[in-house]
Amino acid sequence: MTLLSIIERNPLIFVGGLLLGLIVFFELGLLIGRHRRKIIGEGADEGATLVVGSVLSLLAFVLALNLSNATSRQETRMNSGLEEVNAIGTALMQAEAVGGAQAGPITEDLKAYLALRYRFIRAEPHSAELAEVTAATDQLQARIWTSLEQRVAESPTPPVTSLMNALNNAFDATTRVRLAMGYKLPAQLVLLLLVMSILGGATVGYQFGLTNRKGQLAGIVLSILWSTIVTAIIDIGSGRIWTFRTDARAYVWAMEGFDIADQPVVTDSVRPANP
User: Fold this and answer.
1) pLDDT for 192-214, tens place per residue?
2) Is the alpha carbon torsion for 151, 105, 163, 95 positive or negative?
3) Are the C-beta atoms of residues 267 and 142 closer than 8 Å to each other?
């Protein structure tokens, strides 16, 4: 198991490591600042003040960049989920209307499909349920499409063609949700945020030492707040990594509207394909 995998499975390791790094570099900057003060005396160090201001301004920019990216990805996940729910709902209503021997099985499979997609959104990261739901989704897509092919062969009417398009749109929407949920903030952005955070803590400590201020407690409080903010940004920006979860109310509303209970995973091993 790689270090990245360990961090993904244990957010406290990430928070603790970041907090420790911020405190250590704050104290290091404090020592350097005090040493610098002994050299230059009571006189102001305008160059240091300029550098500290520049570093903190750059840190604010990097924070805003990551926060914007994180909120954008969260909005994308919610919109993708809503599109998937609407697409499945449209296919469900059309399946009920086309009639034929396959209408019932397609309708029941679509209801099970919607329940599976809800479980996919709510599944915990790195869980066995996530892999099971993904495999069951693939099997259910194949079974639904097989039933549709039989219906098209029997009656290639415009309503059946419309159902084919609706199912295709629903499956495409599922792919978009999978992509959105699998997204994680780029490692380069995360690394940039972490490096700038460490440098920011060091420069704040340096400024405290240069002005001979007692700032250990303030530095610890600032480090705790900053670690919390950085962790929250990474968590929100990633589809499924730590504790933040994508809003699944649209799935719940659709399941209530179609009178669908949260169902167990359906696979070919427990349910035969439609004849």
Assistant:
1) 889 999 999 999 899 888 888 77
2) positive
3) no
CA–CA separation, 38 and 17 (whole Å): 32
Place of tokens 């439609």: 274
Place of tokens 């603790």: 16
Q: From the centroid of its chain, how far is CA 58?
A: 26
Look up the pTM and report it. 0.84
Q: What residues does each domain of the chain span?
A: 77-184+245-275
pLDDT at residue number 172 = 97
**In this predicted model, what pLDDT tens digit does every residue of 91-128 receive, in sequence order?**
999 998 998 899 999 999 999 999 999 999 999 888 89
The residue type found at 109 is D
**pLDDT at site 227:** 92
Reported as half-sphere exposure (CB side, CA atoms, 13 A), residue 104 has a value of: 4
CA distance 97 to 104: 10
Q: Which residues contact 9 (CB under 8 A, 6 or more apart)?
A: 125, 126
Helices vs. strands in the chain: H and E counts, helices first: 9, 0
